[in-house]
Amino acid sequence: MSMTAEKIAYRYENQIIERLEEVKDAYDPSEESDLELLQKAIRLVRLDSIQHLTFDETTNMISAWFDNAHVSQLTISLETTYTKCTCFDDECIHEIALLFYLHMQFYSLTEWMTDWRKKENELLQLTINSRTPEAWNATLKKLVEPLRKTDPSENPSLFVHKYSLISQKASPLYPFEWEWRPLFDLFYRLHCLRAAWPYVTSHLDQSEQSFAYGKWYVKNWLMEQLNRLEDSLESLSSKRRLFETDPFYDDLKTQVRDFTLEFEGLFNERFRVYRNFWQILFTDQLSQEKEWQLLNDYNTPEAYYLQTYFYILHGQYDELEQMDLQIGPENLKGWLPLAEMADYEDDTRALSILLHAMLPHIGPYFEQFIPRNEQTSFARKMDGLLESAEIDETIREGLFTVYGPAGVDVFTDFLIERERYREWAALIHRYRVSYEVAEASGLKLGMKDDPASMLPLLHTYAIQFIEEKNRQSYRRAGRIFKKMKTCAKKCGKTDFWNDYTTLIHEKYRRLRALMEEMEKGNLRL
């Protein structure tokens, strides 16, 4: 017989509630497959997939016909465990969908889902209350699982959204005691980094200088994690260490070591994490010596870099000089963070030892491994390190021949600092640097200290503007002529200048607009 859904729901209200409680217990909201199954059942209800509903008074059987991908018939008894569906799926969603449909006649389905989702936080909270590293790691590993399963092809905005949802779930898990909160935050940030690392490296471990909006999203997320990690380290290092936290500290050492050595890509960022832990939190000599010994068990280039790092940290320069640093063009990128660290710590001697070992390989590394759009920044970075290490200037200058056009910006600064204006002007002329760049670089200083060397360069720019043949360019050429007049006056080349202006007048006398600009400038001396 036909019976409305409201009457069936009223008649079997208690049984429906009991069945849905069984569903709550059977499915875990933290499991993606369980969550997807219940969401599909809800979708069937929201899309009105139940086309027909009947009730048999004699057998107390409810029959429902679903029309989604294909027509399915569900027969169920709410008084017994009898259930039969024509879909024959291993996990039939039609039974759950029917229970949701009947429950919705008098109650809110959204509230039921909200209560079910709270179960996840309750379970996580229950586990996290057990103050052991194993409990924290198990809980956080489960919590950040969506990041681990994120496909590299997914949109970065979706990745960031997943992280924001995880952060909302993580917030109530933080311990109430202020002594424990930064420690828990360290565990949480490390788990986030480890889970998201394949996705992050797929977006960032290419060209560092390339730009895309999605890459900007991921870069900001990574910087946020690293900064918050450092904040928690600073906060924890300023507090007295509790005896109960010793197992947590030991676990952190293992996690940080594994993250730095066993993960791939973005070694600079991984080294930053490792370095912050060992320079802010694990600062005692005994722990650092044990860590150095443990690194011997890893036969990887990264482990060798970290052993070198401890030599630098402890100022063991003799041992550092005796090490076979095994530097080559293929692994120079791994040694650069160590050099930058020594520079940051103002450790000139360690920086000098590293750079002298790296010098023979800078040229091949630059030519073989540095993309064109990163060459200028690399040249500036290397020259800054060489300057900090007080490397001989002839060596620094020789590297500019390797850098070629990519090193022009840095080389111009190098020459200006040494007041070598004639060579600066020749360099600007050789690589056809624009007038705007030359003016911002050192043109004014050259006009002041070596005006004679600036005259040929200014002449070149003036002729370039004249050849553009428009009023604005003639005006700019007129301004350059005025600068040339100032230079000629300073270096006592009055006759030369007057002859020069006469020659320009004769050559371009048909360019009336140019003649007007030159007359306004009153160029004769």
Please specify the SSE layout and strand pairing.
Blueprint: H1 5-11, H2 13-26, H3 32-46, E1 50-56, E2 61-67, E3 71-77, E4 83-85, H4 94-103, H5 109-128, H6 133-143, H7 145-148, H8 156-170, H9 181-204, H10 213-237, H11 246-262, H12 267-281, H13 285-295, H14 301-313, H15 317-322, H16 332-344, H17 348-369, H18 375-388, H19 393-403, H20 408-417, H21 421-430, H22 435-449, H23 451-468, H24 471-490, H25 494-507, H26 512-521
Antiparallel strand pairs: 1-2, 2-3, 3-4
Helix pairs in contact: 2-4, 3-4, 6-9, 8-10, 9-10, 9-11, 10-12, 11-12, 14-16, 16-17, 17-18, 18-19, 20-21, 20-22, 21-22, 21-23, 22-23, 23-24, 24-26
Task: Provide tags for this entry.
single chain; 525 residues; four-stranded antiparallel sheet; 26 helices; 4 strands; 69% helix; elongated
Task: Provide a short characterization of the protein structure.
This protein has 26 helices and 4 strands. It is mainly alpha-helical. A hairpin with a 3-residue loop joins strand 2 and strand 3.
